Amino acid sequence: MDHLALLERIMSEVGPEIGRGRLADYIPALAQVDPRKFGFAVADLDGRVVGVGDWEEPFSLQSVAKVFGLALVVARDGERIWERVGREPSGNPFNSLVQLEHEHGIPRNPFINAGALVVTDRLLTLTGDARGALRTFLREESGNDEVDFDAVVASSEAEHGARNAALAYFMASHDNMDNPVQTVLEHYFWQSSLTMSCRDLALAGLFLACHGLRADGSRVLSSSDAKRINAIMLTCGTYDAAGEFAYRVGLPGKSGVGGGILAVMPGRGTLSVWSPGLDSRGNSVAGVAALDRFSTLTGWSVF
Amino acid sequence: MDHLALLERIMSEVGPEIGRGRLADYIPALAQVDPRKFGFAVADLDGRVVGVGDWEEPFSLQSVAKVFGLALVVARDGERIWERVGREPSGNPFNSLVQLEHEHGIPRNPFINAGALVVTDRLLTLTGDARGALRTFLREESGNDEVDFDAVVASSEAEHGARNAALAYFMASHDNMDNPVQTVLEHYFWQSSLTMSCRDLALAGLFLACHGLRADGSRVLSSSDAKRINAIMLTCGTYDAAGEFAYRVGLPGKSGVGGGILAVMPGRGTLSVWSPGLDSRGNSVAGVAALDRFSTLTGWSVF
Amino acid sequence: MDHLALLERIMSEVGPEIGRGRLADYIPALAQVDPRKFGFAVADLDGRVVGVGDWEEPFSLQSVAKVFGLALVVARDGERIWERVGREPSGNPFNSLVQLEHEHGIPRNPFINAGALVVTDRLLTLTGDARGALRTFLREESGNDEVDFDAVVASSEAEHGARNAALAYFMASHDNMDNPVQTVLEHYFWQSSLTMSCRDLALAGLFLACHGLRADGSRVLSSSDAKRINAIMLTCGTYDAAGEFAYRVGLPGKSGVGGGILAVMPGRGTLSVWSPGLDSRGNSVAGVAALDRFSTLTGWSVF
Amino acid sequence: MDHLALLERIMSEVGPEIGRGRLADYIPALAQVDPRKFGFAVADLDGRVVGVGDWEEPFSLQSVAKVFGLALVVARDGERIWERVGREPSGNPFNSLVQLEHEHGIPRNPFINAGALVVTDRLLTLTGDARGALRTFLREESGNDEVDFDAVVASSEAEHGARNAALAYFMASHDNMDNPVQTVLEHYFWQSSLTMSCRDLALAGLFLACHGLRADGSRVLSSSDAKRINAIMLTCGTYDAAGEFAYRVGLPGKSGVGGGILAVMPGRGTLSVWSPGLDSRGNSVAGVAALDRFSTLTGWSVF
């Protein structure tokens, strides 16, 4: 069965899941999204992409952006970031302070909020404009110059961002922030507000499926760095449900509370899915179900 | 033996402890205090005060100020503060975030930093000027109009106050801050910078020993509120060494990282001691030793 | 007003509280007690005791026994027990493993279950028969040779004692058990099953109110050891509600899930109360209310 | 390069790592193993196996046995075990009680000790002889009837097993043990004492690399169950270093404190390595280094 037919079948099968779960209501701008949205796309290593449903409609990347921020920092700075952030699953909610206190301000991994704040801080130091660098990167990788921030979401995040401020100040108290806390927070909130469609996202992630190369053969990351980012996505990419995601889907993936998920099948391609209803751990209900079905029907699984 | 002779004997006995411990070096301005300082004063219910050593030299109140901030809020606002802060010993360091997270932004008691931030926030709402109200209160109770802030200490605290900022933002994320976080922090840092001598401190605390009354018979607090603040001092007043302090000294007490301690013997009087060297829990080494001796020699103990 | 009239007035006032709360249903034998029971007694330093309600009916001491086990060990062994158990409030439920793990098998205080297991282990080493020694002690102090174990409760505790077994094995893994774990557990369960009336209990605790002396002038403990046990009762005696109890009642106290509470007014006397309905922290609802009223009406408070 | 030449090269390259780290000295019988031991084997899907060093010498499986216990339970009982144990990385040491308490006696995953105790309990219920069933299984899969328990190690584990007893009793207190705690513990300790060589282990694990099939085509597990066990190995198989292992090695793996590691390359084969010196997380220092080199040199990685 070709991919398009397959995506259509899956969209039909997971229909009952679409609209289930709850929206990320702690960010008012996200709480107004239509919960019936569903988009699903697959891209192969040659850069061909097909999709179904709302796959060409932009949505808020939220934490999905973290994987690209990490890739940018690793590409420019190599292994140095690992002195300031770990690589282990956290076993705790994404915005927990408990573990951060036990571990003296070193976040467990780059995909929990505290870790992503450290990555943002480093990207700010490396580029002078973390949010701008990330937008440019996503535009280039997706080939879509329309990729942009959503100012309403960004300011909504800032207004409701006291928890992230607490995390950032706590790390500052452990000397794990190089730039002023309020500046890092601002870049972090803007990054999270980036909007892309499933089409854009599947294309933008292709270098992770292709050993660090783009479809045109140019290199984003070394092969081993691409593998390593995939490893971190698999163990840490879906909040405290990474074990469950690995068990059901079997692919490296990164989710966001906007309802988007990027999944990577090394050597084959990428999948991106979007549906706003979230489960109790913050992952898209219909999105995980769709990836689960895709993995089962195609055998795409790293295991 | 009269009190003055007793204080002289104790100062002599605890001599070897003076200078032991470490200064509160996380606040640069405090790290420069002479570690050989030692002052000790006792006041009786009639407002007579005697002292030895450096008992008339002002020192930085730090957390000792928290007991007066709490008294001001309780005096004006009654029991309402207990909706926003608990009354239980924390069992954790004074600036811990762990418990605050488990308990959804409600600090365990008003003497850990998080709890004192809530009290400051409330005092700000009640008075419009939390730091000013506290200075006025301490001037009145001590009868010394020279009691004042130390601007160097206050700005030093602000510069090194990322941990307190983390606590305050975390509570804001749980809707337990009414005023803007940065404003509350500013008042909090200024309050901690208040300086008083042992003489001033022993006099200022007399209302707690006298069922809420001043030496002149006017009332600060109801009798039951005074008892309750003493109860909280006993169970929570000396960081995570409250059990040890109750075991050794047997009096309600409140310590600060400036090396000061106020202790209360209900119906008898107050003790204040200052010596900058701190033990691992942040209490004055020579100060606790002096109070321990006083309690043993006089039988002043609530037990 | 004399004490008897006062107790009668209080029993009437707290009537609406009697029967409120829930029984300790995790121990089947305790779940069958009549929830309407209420007894209240007061003893003075001369050994005179009066009481109201069910004050002469034996009830299950449960954790109230811990204060007598501790007194026995301190009387025989001095300060050595403090190498194996702390003296700080725990800030956690009485049977929590979390803190025990963080602190490497040293329980926070002798009144949480883990700490009482250590005290039992030590008493077993010192006497060869921990449970027997405790029964003898309580018979002597109360002057009642009928004080005894309740075999049904003891075996019920053993059957439902997996949590306590976990605590004991955990401490054994940290070399903080000298005797075989199963033996210590057996003595612990039997001790908890001791039954006494309010009358017996008020008399048995008098030495704590009287600086370590019995009414006849003979000595149980040194004066300073009696003060110290009172201090530990105040900071740690009522599970994770010690702060609340100090705030409301203002007396050293030790409660048990059988619904009993012993409270001590140093230099004045003892209070004992029993009513089986427990609040969410495991303290008797009507019992705490009665002590609160007594404290308010008489001024008995250490603060 | 053929596999044998490759293994020889790697053994030479990791020579400096052999003997580094510390032995598992909390089990006396393991502390006497020669720290210079090093064995390394690779098996392909056809059941061909080659090895170097001490690859034919039996060593103590310890936690490596857990993956086979889980496979047996899943093979007989399907998904039911997941009602009693989770599938998420723990983020805590393998024998931690903290998380178990927060999560009410449901272990985070089947490879931490608490989870393996639940699996053993279930295997005991299913077979009547958990340790015997596991020995039979390993003999069949390895084709070596000499695979057996080490009675000295088993009794050494039992003697030093207080922590595991604490875990088991704690789960019993949450009704998550069906059999008597002491019986489950005995089977658990015997299982951990099973000894196999690298040759045996590589062969015994082949069904995990081959979608649940043996080399002769007979089936141990369904294809999806094999994938799922691999997923759990990747996210949870190397104690609290699973993220690091995924990052460096990129293969599902299960380690034991005997110094052994089994790694699986789905669709290609298995690797087994043994060297007793452990890093701070309990994984073989030379073993991880050897797998890291193999992965780099061959491209065997799921990412």
UniProtKB/TrEMBL annotation, chains A, B, C, D:
SUPFAM superfamilies: beta-lactamase/transpeptidase-like (SSF56601). One of its GO terms (biological process) is L-glutamine catabolic process. The keyword Ribosomal protein does not apply. One of its GO terms (molecular function) is glutaminase activity. It catalyses: L-glutamine + H2O = L-glutamate + NH4(+). Keywords: Acetylation, Hydrolase. Its EC number is 3.5.1.2. InterPro entries: Beta-lactam/transpept-like (IPR012338), Glutaminase (IPR015868). Substrate binds at S63, N113, E157, N164, Y188, Y239, V257. Pfam families: Glutaminase (PF04960). Homotetramer. Belongs to the glutaminase family. HAMAP family: Glutaminase (MF_00313). This is Glutaminase. It comes from Streptoalloteichus hindustanus. The lineage of its organism: Bacteria, Bacillati, Actinomycetota, Actinomycetes, Pseudonocardiales.
